Amino acid sequence: MSQTTFSFEIFPPNKESAAEKLTETLDELVGLSPDFISVTCTNKNDDLARLTVKLAGYVKNRLNVPSIAHLPAAYLDKQQVSEILNELETLGVTNLLALRGDRIEGRKPRDDFRHVSDLIAYVHENFPDFHISAACYPEIHPESNSRVDDIKHLKYKTDQGVDSLITQMFFDNESFYRFRECCELADINTPIVAGIMPIVKRKQALRILNTSSATLPKKFTAILNKYHDDPESLKAAGLAYAIDQIVDLVTQGVAGIHLYTMNDAETAKYIWQATRSLFENGRKVHQA
Ligand code: FAD
């Protein structure tokens, strides 16, 4: 049995007060012994990648936890990307989640990294010490015309040299299993880590109900509809739903669980406490 990883995603705060809170959150997350913590990066402003670099360095060097820096590159050129990668390397952070990034209305992407595969090839050629992860979409990327196109592009992207894939959030495990099967058929053998978003707040519940393009199983929409105005019940049911998803995924041999924490340590802690033996027993078997 191979080890199933358990990891977190955090995002850099944009205010001083939030930065203090994040330090406390991180102290709690570190106590849960994650395999790694990934740090998101917005592409709304070229300078914001600095916050990601700084935070990824903090996680790696001050907290002693492996960190992955997200890097959406569509609006960057080669020189900017090289500067960011040099800074990361100086900090000892050599794990990257390579991304194209979302399109921003009214802003023209640069030509250097039109697709993330261009970034992956560039990093391999110029920064060979980096381990590269990339994003994948069990329910296809919204810009893709078809499942076939999406998988073909994913195959091309992983062939550029991707060490692991992390999925977009999903609420229907069956869609993940279908996707995994398509990857196998396409000879995409990169480990796939499942991104899980626990829905525990009213705002999240309403956003998912009103705008999500993900498949929402009946049992899940029933929870959101019934409890979105009842914070305690929504939290209890949302956590139970995420735990149920995780138990099933680990049982079905997923490579890892990446929790979209939304910088909320309490949720991460609750989920870890409920599921830790699944991961720790895997670790013991792996070490034996
Ligand atoms: P790509 O793999 O390049 O794919 C984008 C689209 O182009 C797809 O439809 C694909 O099928 C198509 N495509 C790919 N290659 C080709 C090709 N050669 N020819 C034609 N079409 C092609 N965004 C952020 O801004 N910051 C973050 O920190 C961030 N973190 C994320 C973490 C995860 C785990 C995930 C799943 C997404 C994250 N995103 C983030 C969102 C991501 O940037 C968007 O989904 C973006 O629209 C696509 O990025 P990508 O790297 O997957 O692009």
Strand segment tally: 8
Judged by helices, strands and strand pairing, the structural class is alpha/beta
Bound ligand species: flavin-adenine dinucleotide
Total separate domains: 1
The first-level CATH class name: Alpha Beta
Biggest β-sheet: count, sense, barrel?
8 strands, parallel, barrel
- Helix-residue proportion: 40-55%
CATH-defined topology: TIM Barrel
Number of helical runs?
10
How do you describe this structure in short?
With 288 residues, this protein is an alpha/beta fold. Helices cover 49% and strands 14% of the residues.
Can you put this structure into words, describing what you see?
This protein is of the alpha/beta class and 288 residues long. It has one domain: Alpha-Beta Barrel (TIM Barrel), CATH 3.20.20.220. Helix content is 49%, strand content 14%. It is built from 10 helices and 8 strands. The protein has helices at residues 16-30, 49-61, 78-90, 116-126, 147-159, 173-185, 202-211, 218-227, 231-251, 265-287, and strands at 5-10, 36-39, 67-72, 95-99, 131-136, 164-167, 192-196, 256-260. An 8-stranded parallel barrel has the order 1-2-3-4-5-6-7-8, surrounded by 4 helices. Helix 6 links the parallel strand 6 (164-167) and strand 7. Helix 8 (218-227) packs antiparallel against helix 9 and helix 9 (231-251) runs parallel beside helix 10 (265-287). The N and C termini lie close together (10 Å). Bound molecules: flavin-adenine dinucleotide. The site of flavin-adenine dinucleotide has 26 residues, from strand 3, strand 4, helix 4 and helix 5. The site of flavin-adenine dinucleotide (FAD) has 26 residues, from strand 3, strand 4, helix 4 and helix 5.
